[in-house]
Amino acid sequence: MSHREARALLIALSVSLAGCAATTARLGPGSEADLVTLIATSAVGDPCSPAAFPGNFEFATRIDRNGVRTPFAVPPGRVLVVTGFSWVAVGPANATATVELRAGAAAPLVRSSAACDGIIGRAGSSEVLTTGAVIGAGVPVCLTRSGTTSMTIEYGSLQGYLAAE
To answer: How would you classify residue 45: left for phi > 0, otherwise alpha for psi between -120 and 50, otherwise beta?
Structure first.
């Protein structure tokens, strides 16, 4: 290979690699401060469901690594990428309890079901969202019941991270 051919190949390779580097995006949180753990609390009003079920929950409380609780909303210019959530509910013994993770009153992002035990009717589950569910700024993150209206949600937690829009 001549010097001229080697130089042309090097330039072509550099241009090709530069194009790849420009389109590569970093996935995941930018820093530890972007990691989010939320707990569900009773929804104020009805930001969570087009149906007015009492007992819907909103993930509006953040817990930091020291256990300090603070109000939470997805900040402007950011999105929340949900990577998992857990829930516990009580319903009729031997019934199926189903909850929905929602972005506001929109269609459910995820439905999760579990059988209520035969004695006290408690059910629960944990879900991992391998591709993540993206929720925009100002949109409430909700845990609502589905189907069994006699079911009561007792607890919900959510894990994820904040990222740039």
So the answer is: left
Per-residue pLDDT of the chain (165 residues), as tens digits, is 554 554 443 344 343 333 333 334 556 888 999 999 999 987 766 666 555 555 678 899 999 989 999 999 999 999 999 999 999 988 888 888 888 898 887 778 898 989 889 888 899 999 999 999 999 998 989 888 876 567 888 899 999 999 998
Statement: the pTM of the whole predicted model exceeds 0.70: yes
Residue 30, SS3 per DSSP = coil
Domains in the chain, number: 1
CATH number where 69 lies? 2.60.120
Q: What are phi and psi of 7, to 5 degrees?
A: -65, -45
Is residue 62 one of the residues assigned to a domain? yes
Residue 7 maps to a domain: no
Domain that holds residue 132: 27-164
